[in-house]
Amino acid sequence: MNLKRYLPSARVLRTGSAVVLMAALAACSGTPRPKPVELPANVAVMGVKQAWTVRIPAVNFPLSTNVSGDNVAVASSDGTVVVIDSRAGQEVWRANAGAPLVAGVGSDGTLVAVITTNNELVTLQGGKVLWKQRLSAQAFTQPLVAGRRVFVQTADRTMSAWDGQSGRRLWSQQRNAENLVLKKPGVLLAVGDTLVAGLGGRLVGINPANGTSRWEAPIAAPRGTNDVERLVDLTGSASRVGDSVCARAYSASVGCVDAGRGALVWTKPAAGNDGVGGDDRFVYGTEDNGTVIAWRRADGERAWQQADLLKYHVLTAPLAVGRSLIIGDATGQLHFLSRDDGTALNRIVPDGSPIVATPVIAGNTVVVVTRNGGVFGYRPE
To answer: Which of 282, 292, 349, 366 is least buried, going by the fewest C-beta atoms within 10 A?
Structure first.
């Protein structure tokens, strides 16, 4: 079975001298996605209080929100960027990048970086555009802002670093690009003094001073008879606990790497297309058929799975908070499941439009963004 046929939201890009948008993977098979199962009546085992809401314009791109302390940065498709104080739901500032967005948001609490459909890296500070720089190719992974620098990965597998205040390019390193890459956010984070990025099916440790590789660890290897079947990009949010970094290879596997040693700890087959969440015990993921799975972080053995409750629902990656896993749904619902066994704890509907980003935690507030531009702050018991 070709699992990629069930991923209607995925797009692939052909790399080379030009980057060309190809058709949806779902269209390759002509097989419609099964209808999501009807949900049972909600029994609220755990209380959830809505603390505040903020409105932004519609969000029609793969948004990655960013948290710095109590502040959370969000963005909309038209280029609006908003920083919100999660304690009271008050806007710290609101600005516009000057063009529609294709990726965002990266922030260190002071500087915010986004990427436009014009292939421009735009940084904002204090509600104003600080600088803009043209990139070598399209980019779909949110920038990483760390150490007064902005790090970017473009679809042609070029990694670059930019001075946060001046916008001067500090270095650029291009690696061999696959024939196809996903038009989805990938993996880019800092672990100590190492930049960790997803390149194809590998996690790569990079020296942030010059862009050279320190180590590589394979989460998945290409397989199949054509470029689409061999596509194994790392996608979505990664889960980090200390030096343990766990990530998902698109429709192939989930695995964990010891970023201190640059060594693969384990990898297991998995059929999801979004990132993973986790804690010190488990790594949590949602599969493309709606199954929610918990793998033991130490060895990758499956701790539990919830296969029936959300069957065929299109889900975000999970966020682990307190006793619950919090998962967004393309039907506009927010699910609270037990971290211990996946049983339902509560279910709420923010505004009825799809949840477009993996929920995040800022201070004591869970922040959720919807397609219609609703930014909601919740406080679970």
So the answer is: 349
